[in-house]
Structure formats: structure tokens, C-alpha cells
Amino acid sequence: MIMQGQETRTFQSEVKQLLNMMIHSLYSNKEIFLRELISNASDAADKLRFLALSTPDLYEGNGNLHVRISINKENRTLTITDNGIGMRRDEVIENIGTIAQSGTKNFIKSMGSSQIQDNQLIGQFGVGFYSAFIVADKVTIRTRAAGVKIEEGVFWESSGEGEYTLANIEKNDRGTEVILHFRKGEDEFLDMSRVRSVISKYSDHIALPVEMEIKKEDSNIFTWEKINKAQALWTRTKSEISVDEYKEFYKHIAHDFNDPLIWTHNRVEGKQEYTSLLYIPSQAPFDMWNRDIKYGLKLYVQRVFIMDDTKQFIPNYLRFIRGLIDSNDLPLNVSRELLQNSRITQSLRSSIIKRTLQMLEKLAKDDEEKYNQFWKEFGMVLKEGPAEDHENQQAIAKLLRFTTTYSKDSTQNISLDSYLNRMVKGQEKIYFITSDSYAAAKSNPHLEIFYKKGIEVLLLSDRIDEWMMSYLVEFNGKHFQSVSKVDNSLNKLNNEEENAEVVAHKKESEKHFEAFIKRVKNLLGDRVKEVRLTHRLTDTPAIVITDENEITTQMAKLFAAAGQNVPEVKYIFEINPNHSLIKRIADIQQEELFIEWIELLLEQALLAERGTLNDPHKFIRRINQLLITH
User: Fold this and answer.
1) In 469-480, which positions are buried (b, 16+ CB within 10 angstroms) versus exposed (e)?
2) C-alpha dihedral over 89, 93, 96, 97, to 10 degrees?
3) Alpha carbon of 596 to those of 336, 570, 571: distances in Å?
4) Tens of pLDDT along 115-135?
5) How far out from the chain centre does Cα 352 lie?
6) Class of domain 499-629 (CATH, top level)
């Protein structure tokens, strides 16, 4: 083999780390490498089939696409060959010498050396080609891109130790040939029957012939024998497809090492004809929060692969969906730009959203444990839904899970339906509170009246919650109400079931503290919007709340975190006349001492509401001084 332009290059640092993980990981399921490499070969064939729609010459006179596997026991090699799209020299460097996915470096760092043997962690990252180094101490690639000259073939070889050799070669056939040189102890993959069984297990669903080189008995003649059904799995009748076949197909298209959590397979005929096969993973990918995450939905038109990463069919809040859609109505030459403005696309998008939400609703109804697993992995993503998809807002709200004042811990497993079932007589709204943490939310003084009345409150402490609740107005006819904002329904809670004696006592308190409230107002001036008495506190002397049209504290924090200008929040200062500390402060005549106590009360209320103060040292000095003098 004549090689030209030979050079030795160094792997990108992230690739070095990943290869080290592959080589030293104790995989219990080493055969996975064969599935990954056959999957890559299948993708290469799909890409050629799509490009050949507009450029038929790429087939180079041979449109019979296939994947072929051969074993050489003497050389201890296994070769996987495809006649798909192939690669140019720069594509080999880009696809194999580097990892282009953003977030990879942080992901690998997060794994750490102590986690190298964790299959599930590595499974979050689609290792694809690199899985070859689980069993091989050297890997050779010979490839040529379709449509280029024979002498523009590319040779690549590496032992996975940080460097690789690259050169140009002559290659008559288009496509890619991957040769695995097995390390000692991996003899099982030199056994033809063992490899055949692995191929059957993982590749039956691939719509491409996977052939194995078979030696005829009593002769030296070799033939190619098809191992798989070579029929696209989604085109088969659901009753003919086993659970294991569905799982393996998911691993093929998602490059995931774990089984999917759930899936739905539907064929629609009539005004529109299409097939969809949608999966929800059991584990979130490492790049779930990257802005440039690749969407996992593939588009086929009349069984021909068109493109992957099709964002036009699924909204951002369902970006965890994996699978495919095969349409009979879209043109074969459809582009991303045409998809964006296509009426058919909008209809398919709407159908996929509804299918997904129905699948999740069924999972929540039939298997609470599995749904809780889904929520743990993807709940934060689904919370983006109420803001993004007003049309399906109620269906999304039904799927949301919360922790509440009824919960034993911070686990989010309470639905809005179960909340409604526990609403007390006369309760008009769904109450919630947003805070920086579960502990801060659960102990917030705004909840005192709710604990006293036995009314459940949603405790929201995820960063996205305040934004979500600004869009989620009502559920099943019941409006949401923040307990830290002014609302008439809160006054009704205070006043309900009160006898004449209690009402008279309240009026007497208001009259008794009238001069005190006026004194506090004069002291604080326009630093607060209003000063008034409240009867919904039990153990807390004072709180601050916001007016119904005022920006909330948590929303102000979101604006600040995003680097945006934050409008000043003007709070209403509410004072509890039944608290012993308030009664004591109200009797203080010395002006300087009165000022110190009122300032302390306001700072306490602001600290409880915001979690921080502009000048915490001043607050501490004030407390210390009052402790010393009193």
C-alpha cells in the first residue's frame, strides 16, 4: 500500500482522556463496540442515500448499500466495511481526531478518575467509534469519500495512546473500512458464531444488509451472507417487534448505552401519512443544558434518511426526545429552510408534541416509580413548557411535579391534580411560594397562616420556577397565587370562621396601633410602599410583601443573574400586632431606640424575603448593639 503525505498527529486532549477511559474501563458488555461501529456504518449509508438524491453520481455506479464484516483469525483482526459516504482527509481529522460537541471537556472532567469504570456515566456520552478501543490495541481506518478521486483515499491508524498516523492512499471503493487488531484476551470476537450472534442481536432492525464473510464447508470459497432482516424497524407492524428489538433500535439511533425509559410507535394514515417512533431516555445526556445541544429526532421521507437534529418537529422543552419520523407527504429534496415554513411540518410538529405528552401522561398514570425517574432526569426541562407552548399548557401542567407543605422532604412528586383533591372548603386558588431553597421556602413566615389553616402550598425553589409561574396562570379553572403578594383571597383566609369576639379584638388592635403605624410610616418614608398591620402571622413579628402588580423578589433575582437592569422593588411592610416584640416596641418613647428597633424589624423581614441584605455587617452591628443595651 503506497502512502503519501504521511504525518503523525496528536489527539485533542479530550479525546486522549476519553480513549484512556475506553482502554481502562472494565466493561461488562464489551460487545457494545460492534453495535456502535455497525451503527456508524449505517449512518454513513444513510447520508450517501440522501446526498445522492441531488447528486446521483455519488453512487459511482453502485447503489447497493451494505455493511460487511470479516474475521482474520491468523492476524487477530475484525474488519467492518461499508460503501457509504466515506470521509475526506479533513473530515477524518475532524470526526476522529477531535470531539466537536461543546461541553465534552467539562463532562469528562466531571467524571474524574474514580468514575472511569462507571458504564452509565460513559453511556451519557455517545462514544461511538472510540468504543473500538475497549477490545482493540490498534485500530486502522481506510476510507474514501464518495465522488472523489481514487488516490484521495485516507489512511488512519492509532493504538489509542495519544497519537495517530494519517496519510493519503489509493482506494478503489468508496466508503470506510475499520480494522480492529484485538488485544490479548479478546479471542471471543475471533469466533465467527459469537460475532454472528452479536450482529443478529444488535443489527436486526437496521434497514441495510449486514453481511458476514462465511467460508463454505470443505472449500476455500468465501461468500457474503446476510445476517439481519434489513427491514426498517419502524415500517414493521408493532405486534411483530419485540421489546428487545425496540430497545436495541433506540441504542442504535441514540448512541446510548442504557435502555430507554419508554417509547411510542404510531402509524398514521389518511389526510397525512407518517410513522413516528419516539423514545424517552432513562438518563439525561451530559449536554442537556448546552445551547447547541443536538436534537435527537431523525427525519425520513418514504424510508429515505433526510436529516438528523431536526429541531423543526419538537419544541425546546421536549429536546430530550429521541427517535424518528417518516413522512410520505414531504418531498425527498426537502431542506431545513423549507421545513421551517411548511404547513406539513407544523402539523407533524403538533402531532409529535401531543403524542409525547400523551405518552408521559400514560406513564404517570401507569407507573409512578418510572415517572418519578423521568421527572428526576427531565423535570427541569419540562418546566420550560408552560412558557413555550401555550396551546398545550394545561397538558404540560398536568405533568408537573412539586414538593409542598404536605411533603416530607424536597422530593418533587406531587401533581396539581392531587393538590386540587386536597383543597380545603372555600379555597379559591392554588397557593405557591418561590424561594432560593427548599428549606427557605418551607420555613418562610408567609406560610404561617397556611400551616394554621391546614392549607397546602407549593414550595418552589428551582431557578426556573419563578419564570414558569409567570406564564402558568391557572390549572383546571383554579388560578395560581403567590403567598408573598397581595391578594383578596388571603384576606378571606384571615377572616373566615371568625366570631364576633375575634372581630372586635382585631378592630381594637388596629385602633390601639394606629399611632404606632403612623410613626413607622413617617420613619421609613418612601423606602416602603406601605406600612400596615397583618393578622396572618403567628410567630413572626413582621414581613414584607409585594403588591399584585409589582415584580417579585425571585424575578428580580433572575433579572440580576441575567445581567439585566432590575427595577426597584417597593415592599409593603406588614406588622403583627399580636407579637410580644411589637407590643414592646410600640411603647418605646426614646426616638433613637425606636428607630433602631424598626430598622432591625425591616432588615429581618427583608432578609427573610430576599435571603440577602445590602449591608449585612450593619445589620449584625445593630443586633449586637441592641443585645448589649437591652
Assistant:
1) bbebeebeeeeb
2) 150
3) 66, 21, 19
4) 444 444 444 444 578 888 889
5) 18
6) mainly alpha
Residues with Cβ within 8 Å of 177's Cβ and at least 6 positions away in sequence, in order, are: 79, 80, 81, 141, 142, 143
Phi, psi (deg, nearest 5) at residue 51: -65, -30
Which residues in the chain are classed under CATH 1.20.120.790? 499-629
DSSP string, 467-494: HHHTT--EETTEEEEETTB--HHHHHHH
Q: Provide the 8-state DSSP code for 229.
A: -
Amino acid letter at 563?
G
Helix (H) or strand (E) holding 53: none
CATH 3.30.565.10 location in the chain: 4-229
Interval 320-337: pLDDT, tens: 999 999 999 888 777 777
End-to-end Cα separation, the chain, in angstroms: 94
Element (DSSP H or E) covering residue 122 = helix 119-123
Q: How far is the C-alpha of 609 from the C-alpha of 484, rounded, in Å?
A: 9
What is the gyration radius of the CA atoms in the chain, in angstroms? 33
The answer to whether 297 and 348 have CB atoms below 8 angstroms apart is: no
Q: Which three cell numbers stand for residue 15?
A: 479525546
- 4-229 placed in CATH 3.30.565.10: yes
Task: Determine the Cα–Cα distance for residues 509 and 139; give it in Å rounded to an integer.
Answer: 85
Per-residue pLDDT of 522-576, as tens digits, reads 999 999 999 999 888 889 999 999 888 777 888 877 777 777 787 788 899 999 9
**What is the spatial distance between Cα 53 and Cα 115, in angstroms, rounded to a whole number?**
45
Burial of 503 (0-12, 13-18, 19+ CB in 10 A): exposed
Q: How many residues does the chain have?
A: 630
Q: Which residue has the cell 465467527?
A: 192
Q: Edge-to-edge strand order for the sheet containing 304-307?
A: 260-268, 274-281, 322-327, 296-301, 304-307
Where along the chain do the CATH 3.40.50.11260 domains lie?
A: 401-492
Q: Whole-angstrom Cα distance, residue 81 to residue 112?
A: 35
According to the CATH classification, is domain 234-372 in 3.30.230.80?
yes
Residue 181 in grid coordinates: 487488531
Higher pLDDT, 474 or 270: 474
**pLDDT for 400-415, tens place per residue?**
999 999 999 999 999 9
Measure Cα distances from 490 to 20, 33, 447, 484, 577 in Å.
Answer: 61, 62, 11, 10, 18
CATH entry, 401-492, from 3.40.50.11260, 3.40.640.10, 3.30.200.20, 2.60.40.1530: 3.40.50.11260
Q: Global pTM?
A: 0.77
Reduced 3-state DSSP string for 279-304: EEECCCCCCCCCCCCCCEEEEEECCE
What letter would DSSP give residue 163?
E
